[in-house]
Design brief:
66% of the residues lie in helices and 0% in strands. With 476 residues, it is mainly α. Helix 11 packs parallel to helix 20, helix 19 runs antiparallel to helix 20 and helix 20 packs antiparallel against helix 21. The N terminus is likely disordered.
Length: 476
């Protein structure tokens, strides 16, 4: 299969169009990264060593750094579980029969390859606002459905479009790790809460500046996906990859009396009713309104309850959960090492020193731009929105308070900028690549183009809107 793939690559390379040259440049960078770019786990280890060395260079004691690293190794256990459940919840919803029927209908709307890729991009960005765990999985199945209907559909461009939610606006939506974390006291490390207090969603995701910025990025990303799609004569279709998908395996028939509850919706309905009762009460009694009650815990419970109802029978639900498990391995093993980085920063004097450095090089006017650049750069080494925020939030928020910058918009600066490196770092591509049976290098040519276009737009929005919001003291 690999030989066939290589032969196909050599015979289907675009020769003339400007889009083809841009795509070839992106693929050349992808070839380089495939050879030299290490696994995401390596970046977590490099981050631990780098922060340890930075701490030594800034005058911290090696013993203190090592102690804080080990002490905090399990600090992110609740947050790790929450992130894992986001992925599982998104998968079980996307693979339900009702959602699959919706995918089937959506796949029949576009009539041209370019229109199909634009639809995938739009669906990817919009669904990512609901759940970053749902978005790539939903759109992967949409791409797979389209490949059998639309002739000349470039499988690489369509796959890259399915990933656009993770590389553009997911953090501006309801599954924003940073925004939800700052609105959830039980998920925040005490050291972070002491700096910023709670920041409700009304001061982050629901700002008009956030909504407008999100609309701009969705429009830009969808337009680039449409314009960069190759013509049918230059397209690499799914057939050129030699990829075939097996028919979905149905659950086996019940054969034992003890399996009755596994195939019956009775328990599903009972548990779902209890969950819905609880959620309704949480939203009804929230002192700051229903949206303020939408933290990571309630969000995950909503999705898992929806997954239970959509799959109807426990056996089908468990089948979907089992299929989703391979997608969460990276989260489970890497987050404890990110917690070591967090411990060395906030458990020693390093946080104050980094805050001082950030304050010294920024002003009230330049803070938005510098914070956006810093968050994007750090994302190449820590490809996890929530974990990276916990690492950098202590000193970034201290600097924002010193410069009297709106703390909610600081969270949104982070949310806007941190998605950008996802277009290059393949960590969050892993679930998508497995479903589409592609490699990261097959997609990065197109995601690199999105990166180049979106970087200046995102940084401008970070800087400009920071000028429009007044400073609000921390809410303790």
């Amino acid at each position: 299969m690999m030989t066939k793939r290589m032969q196909t690559e050599s015979t289907n390379t675009p020769q003339t169009s400007s889009e083809g040259r841009i795509a070839r440049a992106g693929l050349a960078l992808a070839d380089w990264s495939e050879r030299w770019f290490p696994e995401p786990f390596v970046f977590a280890l490099v981050g631990v060593v780098a922060v340890f060395c930075i701490g030594l260079g800034s005058g911290e004691k090696a013993t203190d750094l090592a102690f804080q690293a080990g002490k905090n190794f399990w600090t992110f256990v609740p947050f790790t579980m929450q992130m894992t459940m986001v992925i599982i919840g998104g998968y079980v919803v996307a693979t339900s029969a009702l959602v699959r029927r919706a995918i089937h209908k959506l796949a029949g709307i576009p009539q041209t390859p370019r229109g199909a890729i634009a639809m995938v991009a739009l669906c990817a960005t919009l669904t990512s606002l609901i759940s970053w765990g749902l978005s790539p999985i939903f759109c992967c199945f949409l791409v797979r459905e389209m490949t059998g209907r639309i002739k000349g559909l470039d499988y690489r461009a369509a796959g890259a479009a399915a990933y656009l939610g993770a590389g553009s606006v997911w953090a501006m939506g309801l599954s924003s790790s940073a925004a939800m974390l700052m609105a959830t006291k039980s998920s925040m490390p005490p050291a972070l809460f002491a700096i910023s207090g709670l920041i409700p969603l009304t001061n982050t995701l629901l700002l008009w500046q956030s909504l407008l910025a999100t609309a701009v990025i969705i429009t830009t990303s969808t337009t680039i996906a449409y314009l960069s799609a190759p013509s049918a004569e230059h397209a690499r279709t799914i057939d050129s990859f030699g990829i075939q998908f097996a028919a979905e395996t149905p659950i086996p028939e019940r054969t034992k009396p003890g399996e009755w509850f596994e195939y019956s919706p009775v328990l599903t309905l009972c548990v779902a009713a209890i969950s819905i009762w609880y959620l309704a009460d949480v939203f009804r009694t929230s002192p700051q309104g229903a949206l303020a009650a939408l933290d990571l815990n309630t969000y995950n419970l909503l999705f898992l309850t929806a997954g239970l109802l959509l799959h109807w029978r426990p056996r089908r639900f468990l089948k979907a959960v089992g299929e989703s498990i391979p997608a969460v391995g990276g989260v489970l093993i890497q987050f404890p090492f990110y917690a070591m980085i967090f411990g060395m920063i906030v458990g020693t004097g390093l946080s104050a020193k980094l805050a001082g450095a950030f304050i010294s090089v920024s002003t009230h006017e330049s803070f938005g731009l510098l914070a956006g650049i810093y968050s994007a750069v750090l994302g190449f080494f820590v490809p996890s929105g929530g974990t990276k925020w916990v690492i950098e939030a202590p000193y970034v928020l201290q600097a924002a308070i010193a410069h009297q910058v709106h703390l909610g918009w600081v969270v949104q600066i982070y949310n806007l900028a941190e998605a950008l490196p996802n277009l290059i770092n393949p960590f969050w591509m892993l679930p998508l690549l497995g479903i589409l049976k592609l490699r990261a290098r097959d997609l990065i040519g197109y995601t690199m183009l999105q990166f180049v276009v979106n970087v200046p737009i995102v940084l401008f929005l970070c800087w400009w809107f920071a000028r429009t919001l007044p400073f609000i003291p921390p809410m303790k």
